[in-house]
Structure formats: C-alpha cells, structure tokens
Amino acid sequence: MRNYRVKLSCAVAVAALVPGVVLAQDGESAGASEIVVTGTRIKRPDLESNSPQTVVSAEEFRYQGATTVEGVLNRLPQFTADANENVSNGSDGTSNINLRNLGANRVLVLVNGQRMLPQQAIDLNFVPSSLVERVDVLTGGASAVYGSDALSGVVNFVLKDNLDGIRIDAQTGFYQHDNNNSAVRGLLDDKGYRKANGSVMDGGKQDITVSAGKNFADGRGNITAYAGYRHYDPVRQSNRDVSSCALQQADDAGTALFCGGSSNTPIGTFVPLEGAFQGQTLTNNKDGTQTFVPYDNSYAYNYAPDNYFQRSDERITAGAFAKFELSKAAEVYGSFMFMRDHTFSQVAPSAIFLGSPFAISCNNPLASASQLDTLCGSKAGTDQTADALVGYRMSIAPRRDDLKHTDYRYSAGVRGDLGSGFSYDVNYLYSLVRFKERYLNNVDAVKAQRALDVVTVNGVPTCRSVVDGTDPNCIPVNVFSSGGVTAEQGAYLFTPSNTSSRNSQQVFSGTLSGDLGQMGITSPWASRGVGIALGAEHRRETLAFFADDIAQQGGATNADGIISVTEGYGEIEIPLISDVPFVRSLTINGGLRYSSYSNEQKSTGFKSKFNVWTYKGELSWQPVDDLRLRASYNHAIRAPNIGELFASQSVGNVAGQDPCSGSDPVASEATCALTGVTAAQYGNIVECPADTCSALGGGNRNLRPETADTITAGFVLTPRALRNFSLSVDYYKIKVKDYIGALDASLIISQCAETGDAYYCGLFNRDPRSGAIFGQNGYIVSTTLNTGYLKTSGIDITADYTFGIGKMGRFNVNMVGTWLAEQVAQPLPGLGSYDCKGLFGYTCGQPSPEWRHVARFTWMAPSDTVLSLSWRHIGGTKLSSLSDNASLSGTPSVINRKIDDYNYFDLSLTQSIGKQLTLRAGMNNMFDKDPPAIAAGILSSFGNGNTYPGVYDALGRNIFIGATVNF
Prior knowledge:
- 54% of the residues are buried.
- The chain is built from 14 helices and 50 strands.
- It is globular.
- Among the domains are: 264-302 and 349-397 and 443-496, no CATH class; 649-698 and 743-782, no CATH class.
- By secondary structure, the protein is mainly beta.
C-alpha cells in the first residue's frame, strides 16, 4: 500500500537582469525597454503592477546550480514546499509549487503567458531550468485576469524563445555529507542497526540543454528550438543518519526517540481474532522452535534503509518556438514543448500486511501444533479455518514504483497592432499529459490468502486452491518460522499492478487591448488615457484514469471526467490625476470575469452546471517620484478542478495511531463505539504498524465552488537620493470560504478521541473482522470535501540595492522576507478553528515559521567575475500538539517540541570568458547542516526520512559545476 504582459520601465528591466536579483516588480518608467510581465491584460508602455510581484532572474538559477525550477521558487518565503524528488513513498513523480500555503491547485502556472498544462496535472519537471529567462511571481490573486485557478497568485515562466545562434548549457553536481549525528547514531547502536558511512558523496545530478535559434526575413521572424537531458542518481535513506531508521517516540510524553519500525517483520507477526488469544499480538520465536511469544518493539522491522531519499530520475525535454511578422497588424506565432520523465520511487520490501484478516487453515502442515492451537483453539487439526491478522515481511526485493510521464504542449496564434492604440491576440493551446504507473514487487493479497490456506495432499503441503482448481499455480507460503519465504514463493505472491491516466486541456482565447486616450477618453486631470482589455476564453479539460484488476484489488478505481468553461472578461485602468502637487499619479483599475461551467462524468451520467463572477479593484497613488502606494481587492470564486471532482478514490498510508487500539485504549469504550468498535473488539484491536494507519482519499463530484477574498496594501520606495535602491512592503490577507480539501487524518483521529464528536468519529471505517483502521478494508475517510475556511495574512518585504565600489566593480544586496501573521483553518463550518502560525506537525503539517527570508550578496568584479553569497533563514516552529487550542490536540513530545531557527549559506562563483563561455561553480548548504530529526508519526504528507525535505536541506552539502557556451 502506498501513501498518498505589459511594458515595464527600463530601470526595473535593468534591475531584473542584475545577477541573482530577486526583487519586486516596481520602478519608474524610463524609456522604451519592453518586458512582458504578469498581472494584467492591458498593454501600454508605462503600466505598473498594483499587486505584489516578484521576479526571479535567470542568474539566480545559475547561482543555485538549479536543475529544477521548483527548487529555486521554494526558497522564496512566499512558497511552501510541495511534492519534489525527495519524496518517495506515495509520490506520483511530479514536482509542484504551493503559494501562500494555500495548495498547489490554487496557483496558476503559465509558460510565456499561457497555461502550462492541465491544472490537475501540473508538473514543473516540464520546464527546462536552463531555458528560463526569468520567473514572474504574482502573489496578490489574479482570478479576474486569468481565471479561478489563480486564487493565490500566478507563476509565469518566461522562456528564452528568440535565440540567434547556438547555446549549450551543461551542469553536474552531487551531495557530500558527513554523518556525525551522535544522537541518531546512538539510537542505531541501541538496536544493532547498521549506521551510515561517516562521509558520503552521492545523489549525482547531470543536466544538459542544447538550444539554437535563427532570425530571418530581416528580423521579422525567428525560430528557436531546444533539446535537453537530465539524470538523477538515487539516494537511499540508509546513507544518512537522520533517515537510517524509523524514528518513533519512546513513551507517551515523547521524552526520547528510539529506532522503531514496522510490526510486519521477516520473523512473522500474528493477531488471532478468535479463541483464547484473541486480540493479542504474537510473533514467531526467534529460536526457530515454531512457537509464539508476545510481540514487543525488539522485533520491529527497520523499513527505512531501502527507501529512497532522492528518487532516481531521467528526463528528456524538447521543443520549439516560432514567430513571423506578416505586418504590424499580424504576427503569427506558435510553440511545441515535450517532456518524457521516468522516475522510480522505492520503499521497503512488501509483506503480507497486518490489516485485513486472513483465513488460516487449522490443519496447515507448515505450522506446529502449538501454533495451530493458538490460532485456531478448538478448531486446531480440523479442516476449518480461523481468522487472524498476519504480518510477514518478504525480505526478497524492495517495492518499486515505476512512474512515467509523457507531456505534450502545442500553441498557435496571431497577434498584432490594429492602430489607434488597439492590439489583439487570438490563440489556441492544446496540452496532453499521459501517466503510467507500474507498482512492482508487491504482495497480491488474494494470492496471499490462497498461499496461507494450506492442506496436506499425499504428505505434501498443498494450497487448497490447487486442490479445488481455483488457482493451480498456487505455492504454499511458510509464515510460521523466520526466513520461511523463498524466492520462488515470493515470485508467486508478487503481482505488479498497473494504472494509467490521460489529462488533456484545450484553450481558445482572444484578447483586445486598447488605449482609449488616443480616442480622447482621458480624465481631465490626467495626462494618460483610459486603458481597457476585453477578452473571451473557452477551456475544456478531460480526465481518464484506468486501473487494472490488481490495482483495483488494492483500492484504486477507474475514473473519468470533463470540465468545460466559457468565460468573458474585461479590465479597465483609469488614470484619474497626474502631475499635480502630492499627486504624481493616481490610478484605479478594475476587472470583471464571468465564467460558465459544465461538468460531466460519462461513466455515471453525472452532469452539473453553474455560473460564477469574479472581480477585482486596484488603486495606485504616487504622491512624489520616490514613493508609490498601492492596494488591491480581489474576489474569486474557484470552481473545483477536474481532479478534485473526479479523481479515483484509493486507500493509502497516513501518519497516526488508532486511539481505540491496544489492550488499554486511549479513547473510552463509548467513544470507540462511535467509530464502529464492538464490545468484543474493545481492548483487542491491533495498533497501526509503525504509527502508520490508512486513509481513503480521492475526488468528490458533489463539491461546491469555494469563495476567496484577497486584500493587499503596500508601498514601493525608490529614493532618488539613493540611486539603485528599492524597497517594497506589502500586506496581504486571503480568506477562502468553503475551502476544498480533505480533513487531515490526524485531525480526524485526535478530534474523535478528545471530543467524541460524532462527525469525526463517523469518518472511521473499521475492518469488519479485525476492527483495525489499516489495510484495504479499514481506514479513515479523508476524501475531498468543502471544509470551513482557511485564512492567511502577513507582510512581504523586498529590498534591493546596487552600488559601485570603485575599481573593484559593483556590489548588490537583495533580500526577500515574509512575516506570517496568521495561518488559520476551520475544518468544518461551525466548529473550532486553529492557527498554525509558528507551528508544525500533526494537523499543521509542514513548518509554518513566522519569519522567513532569503538574502543575496553579490560582488560583480570588472574582470567578469561574479561572487555571490546567499543566506536563507527559516524561523523556528513549535509542535502543534503543544498548543492550547483543543483543535490541535495530539500526542505531545518533549524531544520534538520545537524546531530551532535554521540558517543556510550558499556560495557561487561565475566567470565569463568573452561572450562565448561562462563557467560557474558553487556550494549550497556550505556548512553541511543536518535537517531536524522528527518522529515519523508527527510528519505530514510531504515528510520523508524523519524530516521535511522540501523545507530543509535533507541530503547535506550540494556541490556543482557548470558551463554555458554560446556560438
């Protein structure tokens, strides 16, 4: 089982090209330099953004030695880490970004101003990092401009699409780490587990992209093409101290950690469900006498070493961009982008898992009389069967998840200048994502049942299914002694499962933009005219998911769905006053979008239709040349995407523990009865192995749209007295009502146990025979639904300063920081809320520090040498269960009560040799700082290896070298 543009000022244009700069898109109009930016459909040469916007330059990618685009963005404090290459168990092989911690499905991702891929299937592996010219990050909400997907903001990858020549970009790198975590190494010694080597070099990453372009027809046309290859070596968790074993809390108070593990062991674990030993957890005796003894943690199986801490990955990209100006009134353009990504995730060997009961034959010749007496009681020696939970690890081969993505994206359009200040753009976009998954070396539960139901035929142990002809190929499996499963038996039990999906998106779009000032429509107090943009768009997305019989046996189901939306929108910018005392300029901007949705699921005949309105208002006041004040309000209604509506429902692993398990349950008998526990089961339910229970996740076609209101207010300071200095400070507040999401399984468990609330307790679906909440028949229901609300607010601060240092060149200092004021969630309407600001773990998930920043100090020497130092700061956080809020109740922890402040320092050196060659080298996490070691039961969805690898540098010091060659 698996886990689950307008034109911008020359000053800003130049600043955006300063090496390594990450800055707010603000500045003064100073000429004709023209850069397409994100945030509005209105096109005019002097427009400035009224929403907070950050630009990441191409140089920043070089300084970080980035081979992924999400790795660069996740360093910005506005982002929360999401899926990446350091998540293995439960990964779908994609990489995502999460803006404002509102979820990856609430940020719209664009490539050159157009949608990248179907929203449900966004994968940033699609974007070749070496081709990025810059990334525009709009954080103020943009649903009225781009559609409801842009609730938290927009990320626009602007790619180099107008080369004239040949460019080769190549890079290689690896991780180096000194394993000297004495605390964890001591825990490994206590259990006799193998320790990681003292110093390791692994996790190699290679990336090369070749691009070529050619101008033609006197510069009226250009075609640019590229091809790239990227390879990642895998890293096992056994190669790092922090991840070498499954860390668990040693007691209820969490005063210490110990190397725990799974009760699904190679020795064998049994829980009889009838007879005198009902509910007791037993294990085969290590002495090989085929007797049972009580199970304790000394028998736990260390499942961590084989798990991947970095997935192996191989990616091929290719594409082309073309444009040709027929006349000023018509330029045709188009693009093609392709990606094939093949990655493997790997976890511990499979098992006959504790969870759903198995029927054990009571005259099984492979078991001793003593074992049959314990399992079967009075049935022992008869032809009958007895139910029992069985946990038996197959120490043959680790489970491997073979994940393949093949993505295509085509676009074509025509744009031009109509004269009189008007321009247009009409285009078509088609994108397709094909996904194939093959899960290998996993035990087939049906075959396991047959292999456990064994009788004697002519003195030979034989599967009953062979006798009755149900399965002539069945091979009996001996789980009644350690090491009893052979490779041949494992080969019988292992059956690969296959799933595949197809996501497509078609977009027809047309926009008309104009400057009404050329028609005389201008405020009497302003020098600039009114600007408008009108447009229409039709979008159609499809989803088809297929699961073979084995995958369906494991809980997956086929799924399909279609979403069609037709939209019309308008935007207006009105300069009210300009060039009077204390009003250098005063401008208002408004936008309105109407969307008509039609949803359909052909397999069930389900259909639904609804219409929504989104709108925005913005204000910009520049009292003097040095200062601009801005504010915006966005009202968005986000329709559920195709995955939230129609995604296949399946059972996967979640961190947690059953409050009704064990001989002395935490929850009362009355509370447990609300979860489905019978009187006979109370005190006899087996615990979730390794603090890992099961949850049912997936889509819900009855979802309602969610509503969001976003407010931003701030200022931009560019003092003439301090040249090349800029400071922007912006307050933001976002509240999403009817928030579409899934109730966290740990929240459901804790709220049921603490309050006995019938709603939460009713989300337990217990195995009808064992009462457990792990396995395919026992789980927490955590499917998508409309929850209460989510509210977040804070302040973004961006500062940038470049100054000369005489003959030594220039120096740049840049900082982007975010102070989080609140991260409040209400799981259900009418029930309590909780604030995850400054907290981590359990319900709150990944750390949400109050303050994060990234600062860069760059020296640009006259010799074309650039030396750059980056300082990343992640504020400290406390364990959520230590909060006074009853909604955040959970197992306390002394040793994991907090994560201290983290500071990382990265150094890079770039040397240009003429215009043809640029060399670079660097080191991230220079001081090889260990990530925090967190008990596995505390971690959330994107936790892996006893830490949060998307938040903290999990693998140690990263060293890279690279070169760019131009011809």
